[in-house]
Amino acid sequence: MNVVYLLTGANLGNPEKQLKDAMNEITERVGKITKASSIYESEAWGVEDQPIFLNQVLEVISPLSATKILQAIQQIELVLGRIRTQRWGSRTIDIDILYFNNEIIHDPDLQVPHPYIQERNFTLIPLNEIAPNFEHPIFKKTNQQLLMDSKDPLHVKIAKHE
Ligand SMILES: Nc1ncnc2c1ncn2[C@@H]1O[C@H](COP(=O)(O)OP(=O)(O)OP(=O)(O)O)[C@@H](O)[C@H]1O
Ligand SMILES: Nc1nc2c(c(=O)[nH]1)N=C(CO)CN2
Asked: Hey, what's the signal peptide range on this chain (predicted)?
């Protein structure tokens, strides 16, 4: 069994419902959700002039390989009607693999740990709620240390407690 951390995000349609729907699909297609952070809201990072985002981090126990999980989350994005616009643009649902066990993967289609974890408070803050002591396998720092070192000014607040 593998331990995988996923980030879900949405800023179009009904973001809260889409995060809930994503949890159901993840349970169906990826594995058992063992921890779920609160739902957080923040301004759009990277591209301005977008609606605010909701984000959540999930810990999932999965029998699938990282490649199979990527395929499963891409299926879920399709099922939930993801509309792709621009890079870092608005979306009905986005699912990223943050960590897969403590493995380092550099495939053209799959970078694990996710390359932006340490730069984005919208990832670090929910991640810290459920996995503060998990160590980043490249930086050899816990999520808590990464958050303390973060230079991202983005303000991320709880929208809804789990
Ligand atoms: N760890 C990962 N999790 C999810 N997708 C990944 C990962 N590493 C690489 N990818 C690739 O990224 C592509 C998805 O890009 P996407 O359009 O979601 O980027 P984005 O969400 O706009 O930006 P970002 O990746 O910075 O969050 C997928 O096709 C997938 O192959
Ligand atoms: N606050 C926030 N900003 C973002 C997000 C996101 O999930 N939350 N996702 C993006 C696409 O990768 C770009 N910007």
From this structure: none
